[in-house]
Amino acid sequence: VDDDFVPQDYRLQYRKSSASHFEDVYVGSETEFIVLHIDPNVDYQFRVCARGDGRQEWSPWSVPQTGRTTLVPHEWTAGLEGYSLSSRRNIALRNDSQSCGVLYSKAPTYFCGQTLTFSKVGVTGVCEAVLCSSVLRTQSQLSRDRRGCVNTTLYPRAVFVNGKEMTNQLPAVTSGSTVTFDMEVVPLGPSSNEGGTFKLRVTISSNNREVVFDWVLDQCCVSLYFGCSFSYPGWKVLVF
């Protein structure tokens, strides 16, 4: 920007490199922003401008910068009775079907260092969120064998880890709630007696409350399946 004013707001635009027009993706005072729902392995162009306090006009656009992501988007597995999916398969709706199991992700797309967010919309009722280990390679294995699963279950307040209820509780999961998972690798020392060789530290957050626990594994695991289930119809969950 020019030197004659201090930026107060920013306007970020993007487009696919093959597109002719930019579109707004963010307007505000933050200097960082995560753009969601972009296609992997596709070039995108980004540009930004700014304006100062009391100004109505924006500064000239920056020179467009080109970038791409190689991250595979999170998707739910299609075809499970009891759930309907959006066209991008990142939103699942619990329908009126009597049969309803656990809906898992299509692939182990949740990696260490990322934040996984469940955003829920719908009726009040029992809901669960489960993180599962990529040790279970196939959906059939995932359905019948829970060994190697984090098995972290969120009920409206209680959090269960490997079947044991945690002391700390999260706020009730209601319509509009978001629940986030953050995961990092924690080194195990050579003299560790924790019964495993690999440990993940998982932080679950909801409505400014957090639960943190360590999960000890017998083998290296840096990517996870995730899943959810709802006991009542009408719930809708977006994962990103």
From TrEMBL:
GO terms for cellular component: cytoplasm. It is found in: Cytoplasm. InterPro entries: FN3_dom, FN3_sf, Ig-like_fold. Its main location: cytoplasm. CDD domains: FN3. It comes from the Eukaryota. Transmembrane segments: none annotated. Keywords: Coiled coil, Cytoplasm. Gene3D superfamilies: Immunoglobulins. Coiled coil: none annotated. Residues 1-73 form the Fibronectin type-III domain. May play a role in the negative regulation of cell cycle progression. Belongs to the cytokine receptor-like factor 3 family. This is Cytokine receptor-like factor 3. The lineage of its organism: Eukaryota, Metazoa, Chordata, Craniata, Vertebrata.
